C-alpha cells in the first residue's frame, strides 16, 4: 500500500517551495519597478466607439 502520508508531505513541501520561489520573483520584480527612475502608471481609457469591446455585446 502506498504511504499516503509521506506522499502528502512531499507534495506539500514542494508546493510550499514553489510558492516561495514565486513570492521572491514577485518581490524582485516589484523592487525593480520601484527603483526605476520613472515609475509612472498610466490609465488607459477604453475607446467608447470600439466595436470590439466584449462588454458591449
What layout of secondary structure does this protein have?
Elements: H1 4-35
Would you tell me the structural class of the helices and strands?
mainly alpha
Q: Please estimate the helix content.
A: 55-70%
The span between the termini is: 55 Å
Rounded to an integer, what's the Rg over CA atoms? Answer: 22 Å
Q: Which stretches of 5+ consecutive residues score pLDDT under 50?
A: none
| Shape category | elongated
- Which percent band covers the strand fraction? under 5%
Helix-strand pattern: H
Strands, total number: 0
User: Major β-sheet, in short?
Assistant: none
Our count of helices gives 1
Mean pLDDT: 86
Please sum up the structure shown.
This protein is 56% helix and 0% strand. It has 57 residues and is mainly α. The radius of gyration is 22 Å and the shape is elongated.
Give structural notes.
The protein has one helix and no strands. Helix content is 56%, strand content 0%. It has one helix at 4-35. The mean pLDDT is 86. It is elongated. It is mainly alpha-helical and 57 residues long.
Primary descriptors:
mainly alpha, 1 helix, 57 residues
Amino acid at each position: 500500500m502506498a504511504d499516503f502520508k509521506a506522499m502528502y508531505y512531499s507534495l506539500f513541501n514542494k508546493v510550499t517551495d514553489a510558492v516561495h520561489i514565486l513570492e521572491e520573483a514577485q518581490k524582485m520584480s516589484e523592487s525593480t519597478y520601484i527603483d526605476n527612475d520613472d515609475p509612472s502608471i498610466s490609465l488607459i481609457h477604453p475607446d467608447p466607439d470600439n466595436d470590439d469591446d466584449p462588454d458591449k455585446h
